[in-house]
Amino acid sequence: MSKSDFGDVLAKIPYGVSVVTTGRGGAQVENGLTVSWLCQVAFEPPMLMIAVDKLHYSVDLLRSTKNFCVNLLGEDQAALAGRFAKQATTADDKLADVPQRPADSGAAILTDAVAYFDCEVAQLVEAGDHLLVLGRVEDAAVLRDRAPLTSASGLRYRKR
Ligand SMILES: Cc1cc2nc3c(=O)[nH]c(=O)nc-3n(C[C@H](O)[C@H](O)[C@H](O)COP(=O)(O)O)c2cc1C
Questions:
Q1: Which tens digit of pLDDT belongs to each residue from 8-49?
Q2: Which residue in 14, 35, 33 sits closest to 22, CA to CA?
Q3: What is the pTM of this model?
């Protein structure tokens, strides 16, 4: 099986699209990235998990500040997903000008998102080229009544 074959089969799995914010505030110590590899893993305690490429800038923040906030995007927010799918650079603060407020953990809640889950990192698991980040959900809420942004929109997570 080739890598592109695997990617084509993965593309058949339907998923939602979120922006995961990291850090506890401050321009140099916060970031956000578009994530679709997200799933719920426990009711008690409430937990979910994201898979993040170990080469992404955000991984260092997840390992050090140990918190993150999952912001589920609405079907009208494909442009925002595109913005956060670009690699962070020192010249470009992806979170600048995006309506937000700090979650209890300090990560940004994108206030135009459909819903959010504010998490403290409970466990990190190495999985090939990705890091599985299990988060204990400390707070969650629905922010607006809008259908979620999904892979049906054509958005796709591809290996660079
Ligand atoms: C629809 C879509 C879904 C994505 N899902 C993930 C994901 O689940 N995990 C991941 O590591 N990267 C994912 N990415 C890629 C990251 O968003 C992208 O590489 C980003 O630049 C990483 O940001 P950073 O380098 O500033 O941390 C996705 C991209 C798109 C367009």
A1: 899 999 999 999 999 987 655 789 999 999 999 999 999 999
A2: 33
A3: 0.96
Q: Residue 141: which residues within 8 A CB-CB, separation 6 or more?
A: 115, 116
Pocket-testing residue among 18, 21, 34, ligand 1, by greatest number of atoms within 8 A of Cβ: 34
For the segment 39-87, what is each residue's pLDDT rounded down to a tens digit?
999 999 999 999 999 999 999 999 999 999 999 999 999 999 999 999 8
With the most atoms of ligand 1 within 8 angstroms of its CB, the residue from 18, 21, 33 to mutate is: 33
Is 127:51 a contact under the CB 8 Å cutoff?
Answer: yes
Q: Per CATH, which fold does 3-153 belong to?
A: Pnp Oxidase; Chain A (2.30.110)
Burial class, 3, CB count within 10 angstroms (exposed 0-12 / middle 13-18 / buried 19+): exposed
Domain boundaries, the chain: 3-153
**Rg for the chain, CA atoms, rounded:** 15
